[in-house]
Amino acid sequence: MSEYYLDILGKISLSDYSKIDDYMAIVGEEDNFIITFNNNSIDNSDIVYEMLGNNNFSVKYKGGEENGKLYISATRNKR
Q: Domains in the chain, start-ordered, CATH in brackets?
C-alpha cells in the first residue's frame, strides 16, 4: 500500500482540479491519497469529494484545521 500526497497552496483553481485528476489516475487499489489545502478553499471541498467518489475512492478522513489547512484522506477501493 502506497501513500500519495498533494498539497494545494492558495485558493483552488481549475489547474488544481486537473492535478487532483492526474494524481487519482496513478493511485492504485487500496493506496492512500492525502490532499491538503488552505481553509480559504473549503467552499470548493465538495467538488473534491465528488471527484473522489466518482473515481472509486472512499474518504476515510476529512476536516481538521491544523496549521490553517484542511485535510482529506481517501483510499481507492478494490474493483
A: 3-76 (3.40.50.150)
Rounded CA-CA distance 42/73 in Å is 15
Q: Does residue 73 contact residue 60 with C-beta atoms inside 8 Å? A: yes
pLDDT lower than 70: segments of the chain: 40-42, 64-66
Pairing of strands 32-38, 3-8: parallel
22-25: Cβ within 8 A, 24+ apart: 24/51, 24/52, 24/55, 24/57, 24/76
pTM of the model: 0.84
User: Across the chain, how many H-helices and E-strands are there?
Assistant: 2, 4
Decide if 77 contacts 27 (C-beta within 8 A): no
